Amino acid sequence: MKRFALTLLLGLFALTTFAENRVTEHVFRHKGVDYTYYLYLPENLKADAPLVMIFHGYGSRRIPSVHYGMNDIADKHGFAVCYPKGPKDFKGKNCWSVGYSFHIENGWSRDDVGFTERLVRYLQKRYKLSRENVFATGHSNGGEMSYLLAMQSKMFAAVAPVSGLMMEWMYRDLTPKRIVPVMEVHGTLDKTSAWNGDPTNAGGWGEYIAVPRAVGYWAALNRCTHEETEKLPLRRNQVVAHRYVNGTNGHEVWLYEVIGGKHSWAEKDLDTAAEIWKFFSKYLK
Predict the structure, then answer these.
(1) pTM value > 0.85
(2) What is the pLDDT of residues 249-280, one digit of tens each?
(3) Which of 10, 14, 130, 158 has its CA 20 to 30 A from that of 222?
């Protein structure tokens, strides 16, 4: 039994290492700024394959590789995965420029939306990827980046923030260039990205609206007519899926409420990557 367990462990390690070895590192320059990005291309990748962009959280120092669980899903369904790395801000933190209050107060900003659009176009041309099936997800600051792309870019067919926020300035000042389906995964006890929002900037990130309000905003934009709920199989915290359906062109907006969940990718509560791809795959063309 011990020998079998050791063999199984070594096999899993080999699979993980193999997947990590297929993640390649690149540099892309935009407006004088060098961005690093990591690219995962499954062996079964075909021409016109979809592309999923995954954005990290504020201050993340990890090389994403297999952390988000999306590479295994890409192997099953044959899509490319790109993990851009935000260059450092004036605090020395790798991040995405989404209008945090301390960035605005110090006059700091960067054209991360423009970078993303240029990188997507480059990847589409270089690897013959789909021009239509492009999706964005991300954790925390990467979730905010996903919301910002939903507002300011026409390139994305759907977005899926995880522990992400819709900043109040986005809500008040921006009009979406393209109305897209949105999925949010969020813990109700998240102390970093509060479920009930932060109208007074108590957390120091800037004012942002409550998670249910942000989801409701997108459900209204997509003209969803009613809500369907489902309790996912229990792992650690109970996850309740709120799906707003029957929107224009078949669009839906999903909120996965992780009851008691904190600031995380929620991978211990559900198969986050698989659920995100299930959502994205509804909008493949």
Answers:
(1) yes
(2) 999 999 999 999 999 999 999 999 999 999 99
(3) 130
